[in-house]
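Title: Comparing notes on inverse folding

I've been comparing how different people in this forum approach sequence design from structure. To keep things fair, I'm posting one structure and asking everyone to reply with a full sequence. Here's the target:
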């Protein structure tokens, strides 16, 4: 199994009160899957993504990626894991405002070992003609394409996307989902999208539903919808 979570918990102590952001989460993901993690606000999605991404540690339980328990890694190994194994896509793109599209992508490739060719990635996300533009000169959808290119250019095995269409209108959101699917199929990346948008679940070949820090459903879709088939 490529990714497995076993009994993951994450507890925060807020004064007298204990908040259980994750409360015994188990799941397995195979390499190459297109996974949608669906849950309402506060269900623990971001906490889970941060743990899978090596940015946070669980309170208990384990998370295993490619046979390595990442929650037992030393800081140095965890840094390597974040650099080489995972790429991140955020809701609000998180681009460097003073760097062009190309420079934003270059910056990410400088910290990794097996970076992909930047021109190839720019054309994969259909942004060749905008490569010298700054984020402020691009639409939200274009900025998200740069952010996806930046994540993919590192050539990670896993692409973790936190509400990637959350700040976009419907049409642009669909085109971003199409791009993520293309990255999944053509670049053979395992893609994990977290969202509160139930419509997006239709295009996942695996859907993991979270509620109150627990997995309430985990199923595979034999015939996932194309991004054009989802509606919200
Ligand atoms: N650093 C923290 N300190 C205290 N409580 C936290 C912290 N981070 C998250 N929580 C709590 O843990 C629970 C899960 O939060 P999380 O952000 O993972 O949910 P989410 O599903 O991503 O929500 P949203 O869609 O609103 O971002 C919430 O009740 C939240 O208030």
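Reply #1:
Here's my take.
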């Amino acid at each position: 199994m490529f990714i497995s979570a076993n009994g993951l918990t994450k507890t925060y102590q807020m004064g007298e009160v204990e908040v259980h952001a994750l409360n015994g989460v188990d799941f397995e993901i195979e390499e190459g899957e297109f996974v949608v993690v669906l849950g309402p606000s506060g269900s623990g999605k971001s906490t889970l993504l941060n743990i899978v991404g090596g940015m946070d540690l669980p309170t208990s339980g384990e998370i295993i990626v490619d046979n390595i328990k990442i929650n037992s890694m030393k800081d140095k190994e965890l840094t390597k894991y974040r650099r080489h194994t995972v790429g991140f896509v955020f809701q609000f793109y998180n681009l460097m405002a003073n760097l062009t599209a190309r420079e934003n992508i270059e910056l990410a490739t400088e910290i990794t070992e097996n970076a992909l060719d930047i021109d190839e990635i720019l054309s994969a996300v259909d942004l060749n003609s905008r490569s010298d533009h700054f984020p402020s000169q691009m639409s939200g959808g274009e900025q998200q394409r740069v952010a996806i290119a930046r994540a993919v250019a590192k050539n990670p095995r896993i692409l973790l996307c936190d509400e990637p269409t959350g700040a976009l209108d419907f049409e642009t959101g669909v085109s971003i989902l199409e791009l993520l699917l293309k990255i999944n199929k053509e670049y053979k990346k395992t893609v994990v999208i977290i969202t509160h948008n139930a419509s997006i679940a239709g295009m996942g070949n695996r859907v993991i539903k979270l509620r109150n820090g627990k997995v309430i459903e985990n199923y595979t879709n034999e015939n996932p919808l194309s991004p054009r088939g989802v509606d919200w």
